[in-house]
């Protein structure tokens, strides 16, 4: 609710600023604001922002849905993730397990049944290669 009050206060300040001699600027400034909004929306819908915020997390969710059925994940008590995975809450949601960030100082706490989730293109040097030998089947996306 605080953000709504702040936006309303900002809109009121702009309205008061554009009264009197500055009233002739209302139409050009309104048209410019509408154009900026439409261009921004077009870039968000068609550009890399869409991939980053919508498509990529959806692909990760599809991979995690496939991982749910793996018996090794069913035995795990904890999921560790490495840098480059920006949505650990989705890991917890799909696998219904607690999730912790793995760094080199935490390697001693990883149990044999725990799952370590890494990105294939960003594997840290400290992650033991025998902990992630299997790749999940490829995910089919509709792009």
Structure description:
With 143 residues, the protein is mainly alpha-helical. Helices cover 50% and strands 6% of the residues. The protein is built from five helices and three strands. It has helices at 2-17, 26-46, 48-68, 71-75, 88-95; strands at 79-81, 99-101, 115-117. The chain has a three-stranded parallel β-sheet, with helices on one face. Helix 3 runs parallel beside helix 5 (88-95). The chain is elongated, with a radius of gyration of 24 Å. The two termini are 38 Å apart. The model is unreliable at 133-143 (pLDDT under 50).
- What structural class is derived from the secondary structure elements? mainly alpha
Our Rg estimate from Cα atoms comes to 24 Å
Average pLDDT for all residues = 77
Largest beta sheet: strand ordering: 2-1-3
Shape: elongated
Please tally the helical runs, counting DSSP H or I stretches of 4 or more residues. 5
Instruction: State the total count of DSSP E strands.
Output: 3
Query: Helical residue percent?
Result: 40-55%
- Please outline the major beta sheet: 3 strands, parallel
Q: Classify the oligomer.
A: single chain
**Helix-strand pattern, N to C?**
HHHHEHEE
Give the N-terminus to C-terminus distance in angstroms: 38 Å
Beta-strand residue fraction? 5-15%
Low-confidence stretches: 133-143
């Amino acid at each position: 609710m605080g953000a709504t009050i702040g936006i309303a206060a900002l809109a009121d300040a702009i309205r008061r600023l554009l009264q009197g001699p500055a009233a002739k600027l209302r139409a050009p400034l309104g048209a410019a604001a509408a154009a900026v909004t439409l261009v921004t929306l077009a870039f968000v819908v068609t550009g890399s922002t869409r991939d980053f915020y919508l498509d990529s997390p959806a692909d990760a969710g599809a991979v995690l849905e496939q991982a749910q059925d793996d018996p090794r994940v069913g035995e795990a008590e904890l999921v560790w993730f490495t840098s480059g995975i920006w949505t650990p809450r989705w890991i917890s949601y799909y696998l219904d397990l607690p999730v912790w960030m793995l760094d080199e100082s935490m390697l001693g706490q990883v149990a044999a049944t725990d799952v370590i989730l890494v990105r294939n293109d960003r594997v840290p040097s400290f992650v033991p290669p025998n902990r992630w030998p299997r790749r999940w089947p490829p995910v089919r996306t509709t792009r």
